[in-house]
Amino acid sequence: MNAADRPGVPGQDAIVTSWKSLHMLPPRIRETFARFPREVIDLCRLHPWTALVTPPQPGMRPIRDILVHMVSAERHWIRHVIHGDPRERLQPEAFPDLDSILSAWAPQREATLRFLDGLTPERRQERRPFPWDATEMASVEEIVWHVVTHEQYHRGQVFTRLALLGRRDLPDYDMLR
Q1: Which helix (DSSP H) or strand (DSSP E) does residue 135 occupy?
Q2: How many helices (H) and strands (E) are present in the chain, helices listed first?
Q3: Tens-digit pLDDT profile for residues 73-98
Q4: DSSP code, position 4
């Protein structure tokens, strides 16, 4: 146990208060999260649209579908689960090009970041039921981290598919770079 964990340690309240007042996402993680939609769309621009809408193998989703899924998932968790807005299901076929995907994703990302920037420690701990099982709950903070890590998982899928298209110049888009 360190000093900050022991009751009665001078400065303990200041440490806890300081930690709780931090933004939801650490600054470098927030910056990467903010840039990702435009960066990944720009990486895809080198490829013809037909390559982005064609599955690399039977049973695998094409890049367009994964990108739309990332936009849709963020909308689902932030707008629907956290805010209680009606669920909006985006259909990949409704997006005729990369710019149309970015035009849906960029404002969603901006809204998500504004929401995160305004989260208080108390609001982070509020609980929301899972849409598929109202007996299961998650805190707003858990949901936000799910959105961030979910995107990173699918980023790996997009990068793998770009590599299958012959890309050997893919940048390091880790959260910390």
Answers
A1: strand 133-139
A2: 7, 2
A3: 999 999 999 999 999 999 999 999 99
A4: G
- Buried b / exposed e across 54-69, counting CB within 10 Å, b at 16+? eebeeeebbbbbbbbb
- Give the β-pairing of 133-139 and 127-130: antiparallel
Confidence (pTM): 0.86
Fold of 32-52+60-164: Four Helix Bundle (Hemerythrin (Met), subunit A) (1.20.120)
Query: Alpha-carbon distance 76 to 62, whole Å?
Result: 21
CA distance 21 to 177: 25
Mean pLDDT, all residues of the chain: 90
- What tokens appear for 73 in the block? 């998932």
DSSP 94: G
Q: How far apart are CA 69 and CA 63, in angstroms?
A: 10
Let me know how long the chain is: 177
